[in-house]
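Why run this: before we spend reagent on co-expression, it is cheaper to look at a predicted model of the complex and decide which construct boundaries make sense. The entries below are exactly what would go into the expression plan.
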Amino acid sequence: MNEKLKRITHYRLFLPLICLALVLLVNMIKTPTFFHLSIKNGVLYGYTVDVVNRASELVILAVGMTLVVASSAGTDISVGAVMAVAGAVCCYILSGGAVSVNEYHAPWILGLLAALVAGTVCGAWNGFLVSRMKIQPMVATLILFTAGRGIAQLITKGQITYIRVESFKLLGANIPGIPLPTPIFIAIIVVLITSIVLKKTALGLYIEAVGINPTASRNVGIKSKQIIFFTYTFCGLLAGIAGMIATSRIYSADANNIGLNMELDAILAVALGGNSLGGGKFSISGSVIGAYTIQALTTTLYAMGVSADQIPVYKAIVVVIIVTLQSEEFNRYMRKFSARFAARKAEVAK
Amino acid sequence: MEEHQHVVLTMRGICKSFPGVKALQDVDFTLRTGEIHALMGENGAGKSTLIKVLTGVYELDKGEIRLEGIDHPIVNRSPEEAQSKGISTVYQEVNLCPNLSVAENIYIGREPKKFGRIDWKTMNRLGAELLKSLDIDVDVTVPLGHYSIALQQMVAIARAVDMSAKVLILDEPTSSLDELEVEKLFTLMRKLKGQGVGIIFVTHFLEQVYEVCDRITVLRNGQLVGEYPVAQLPRLQLVAKMMGKDFDDLASIKSLRKHTPAEDVVISTERLGHSGTIKPFDLQIQKGQVVGLAGLLGSGRSELARCIYGTDRPDSGKLHVDGREFAASHPIDSMHAGMAYLPEDRKNEGIIADLSVRENIMIALQAKRGVFKLLSRKEQEEFTDKYIDLLQIKTSDRDAPVKSLSGGNQQKVILGRWLLTEPDFFILDEPTRGIDVGTKTEIQKLVLQLADQGTSVMFISSEIDEMLRTCDKMEVLRDGAKVAELDGDRMSQESIMASIAGGER
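The model came back. Tokens follow.
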């Protein structure tokens, strides 16, 4: 029994899952309606659906961020801004430069591809700076973090570009006949494809090896620079996908608000997932759980009626608790404490 | 000891540990006035640590330092404090300000003043007089950066001496100087010696020691080997003392060899070199031959190997593999050409600590196959078990992180990693360092077996007897250059040591 318990508590995703469970538990007590589901016009509604739906962009970003952190022991803080760039590029192409249009000026698929290419190019730029120029990841990605929204503004000429076409909203809403919102599926597909690629090729091993010891990795024939370049480029592509979802949700390119502060949530998701920000070993599923935890927390606070401007405070408190629970230092302390407690109990029993 | 000399500095029972390392154990050091005292030892012997303890960069754990004229043991907490007591250091990299004038550099922080302002005239005059008295020919009003490193160093020495140095420490001052500049520096050192300054000279150039020094203190592995007047310690013995050779005569395991190396040349170099680390060298390695690289640590052994493997990209000469010209732009190219490389620094360049034993073993073969051809889990486990068995790697589990293994077993994991790639040419850089004797012999036997099966091996070791037992041919390196090639009967402990010392020329 004890052995089994030990195996469960030492399972890598044990703590991230516990954290998610804790957040949900609070909901069950505080907001009984949280788990209610209802169907209107063939579409599923409810807080839980909302959490999973809203978390989609974050999940996608967290996947890319996990790989960046693992390979380079650094973070890509430009993903939020890259989302805005991708959205702006897409809307610019679909609107043909107009502020608001009621029909596409170019095929939808062209806009989508352009957005993804824009995201990939941004990621490749970050990857170039980090892997070739040896600039610290934080500093390298700070460039697009600050410049990205400016670029997006330039593309949209400082206006919010609206695409008032029904089919444009599908990526961020429900496809008729399907009860769940599209973003959920996109997030699942991204996670699945990434996991399969990492499992079926040696890429995951390479990324971990490079993150742990780049010199040794080079000596065994791994091209460390290429690996790091790849993770940043891939992270950019995923930011492009997330940007498309966010743009589709509001059927417009809002350069100032799309993906705002999402880079921080993405980094947090990686950390909450039990991944070391020092690079090396990683778990995609951990980060995904982390992302859902963050969104569950945000939605919970809304459901409890906390006003939007106070939410960061409560979020911060919960994050501090979660991160502390997972820290080595705290766990060591707890072990010591429980050992002492057990010893005292044994003494009393005598 | 000559009459007019007396002891100026004594260090007794100095101990200093860093986490996991005893850098100095019970070291004594004595310096007299008017002598040039060489501090010798291989890299990591504790020379720098001793100097840093003396100058207050490190705090000592145990022991006492006494300086002439102070009747209690001194403790230096910073280089400034040491300097105020008369202990000055001049490092290889001059730490003066190149954009200030020579005179400013000499008097910085203690400028002659007049009415609270710097008295430039006096400063320049004093500076010029000082340098003239030491036969240093520079214009004191010109920025220091205009002069060569050698002259900058001499200015630094002049500054140190002028601050009433009783003890002058020169830490590898000649590394970046050419011969003429070295000669000038020596003239200056002799002059200061004549003035009664005690000079500690840290260097790894043996010839220079015999040219300029009076006395030698040898350290090895953080322990004192001894103090000797130069005249009483021939080069050969100095090298023996630095390397700690106690000529053991373990039974030769060479009898294990069944075949002699074939004639076909696997690796050949033509003036291959990497500026700053290894001077151009010629080398030929035959199929199934074991070639040893001998030399002191820091003599360019590892650098030569890295140059061939491509971790350092050579910038001169040519490398031929199997008769074809070959230039690697990344280690993977060398691996495809059939090379394998076990680096000297196991921790930083060899193991990937957080990965499992299995992953550490399969990773090189995986890299060779390419990212898309992942070895199946079954293959990985088979290979891992094979090498755990073959090399008797002691691990709780094939999926245990490699960092949980002992050093020797980590080394075996890396050996297994490369054996799995079935190399034609295997570079082993200090494969037996920090490994128990039993494992050492196993590794030596393995090398011979490999050679018998037709693998060419480059074997680098600080232990000459170990190489004598395994190698067919020895290359001797000194100060970044290949200086001798010994084979057959010419290969003996004495001949190798003589070549390393490079005495009679």
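The first strand of chain B starts at residue 7 and ends at 18. The two ends of chain B are 30 Å apart (CA to CA). Bring this page to Monday's planning discussion.
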